[in-house]
Amino acid sequence: MVQEFRLHKNDFVLPIFVHDQLESTPIAHLPGHQRVDAISLMAHCEHILTKGIRAIALFPVIDSDKKSPECDEAVNPDNLVCQVTRRIKKAFGDDIIVCGDIALDPYSSYGHDGIVKNGAIVNDDTLDILAKMACNQAAAGVDIVAPSDMMDGRVLAIRDALDNDGYHDTLIMAYTAKYASHLYGPFRDALASLPQFGDKKTYQMNYSNRYEAAIELDLDVAEGADIIMVKPATLYLDIISDFRASTPLPVAAYHVSGEYAMLHSAARDGYIDFSEALYESLTAIKRAGASIIVTYGALDIVDILQ
Ligand code: PBG
After folding, report:
1. What confidence score (pLDDT) does residue 11 get?
2. Whose CA is closest to 88, among 154, 31, 35, 137?
3. Counting atoms of ligand 1 from 1, which one is nearest the CA of 193?
4. How far apart are CA 110 and CA 90, in angstroms?
5. Of all atoms in ligand 1, which is nearest to the CA of residue 15?
6. Is 184 in the pocket of ligand 1 (CB under 6 A)?
7. Known catalytic residue: 231?
8. Which of 178, 200, 201, 286 is catalytic?
9. Of 134, 215, 232, 299, which sees the most CB atoms within 10 A?
10. pLDDT for res 165
């Protein structure tokens, strides 16, 4: 009766990696997750629905021959994400909420989230491409576009483009405070998207900064974000808590690949109990103020909750 916070299955978004191959392949450092082929994806969606998870975040693994410096595949209206979204929406309609990733790293031969010119990531040249991507995904049926790229001004560019094309009902979940973290390794492995030069510190945030996140929050709210996100989650509870106190918008948190992988590896080595530590981690994220939690442990936690 006096417990303040409870986890609920509706809190969670499950990230899913999809690739354009005939069979699913395991991801080395992300136990329980695969690069899923398009056919198995449908069975997977059926499965997660029966478990009670209704929201997914799609991440495409793009074949290397389709990656390019210009990221042309990102704006192909028939690219992998658009194809599989159309299938999911045809089969499941609104039973499954699809979040589409907006960033160029899966499509870039440089592994960067923006367009690269003369060895630098060019903010403004990237915005049109992101906006086009968002419209393509909305046309395919994506419910929530989620810019994870951290270019400045992209929420406004996406909002304008969606409005112009008549996609008034598509939500924007902005990765508002996304830090240049060392916990993204398993994800980059899964996508083969390791940056080919430098790092992402010119566009992702410095993890030593707390107050700067307020600037990012003001911008994303003013530009029209519907949901704002903090990423990673468990090492960034102060930021989640700050956001909760500063905006009435829903606050999301991304419990990233490295956070999930650490729980698994420590449990495998006998240091901790996976289920208990996952439960505690996700509860801490919710207690800090996140009402939406993107986690690779979504299926594990609903089992535990049951
Ligand atoms: C890139 C992106 C990343 C993640 C989601 N989108 C990695 C990065 O910024 O390099 C990481 C998520 C995770 O580690 O689970 N747009």
Report:
1. 98
2. 137
3. 10
4. 34
5. 15
6. yes
7. yes
8. 178
9. 134
10. 98
- According to DSSP, the residues that pair with 102 across neighbouring strands are 147
Q: Which residues of the chain have pLDDT under 70?
A: none
Q: What is the pTM of this model?
A: 0.97
* pLDDT score, position 70: 96
Residues 4-51 have pLDDT tens digits of 999 999 999 999 999 999 999 999 999 999 999 999 999 999 999 999
Pocket test for ligand 1, best of 188, 230, 294 (most atoms within 8 A of CB): 188
CA 255 / ligand 1 centre spacing (Å): 11
Distance 43 CA to ligand 1 centre (A): 25
pLDDT at 32: 95
Q: For residue 192, how far is its CA from the centre of ligand 1 (angstroms)? A: 11
Measured in angstroms, how far is the CA atom of residue 254 from the centroid of ligand 1?
Answer: 10
* Best residue for ligand 1 mutational test, from 17, 115, 181, 187 (most atoms within 8 Å of Cβ): 187
Query: What three-state secondary structure class fits 225?
Result: coil
Report the pLDDT value the prediction gives residue 7, as an integer from 0 to 100. 98
Catalytic-residue membership of 9: no
Give the domain ranges of the chain. Answer: 9-305
Predicted pLDDT at 57: 98
SS3 at position 109: coil
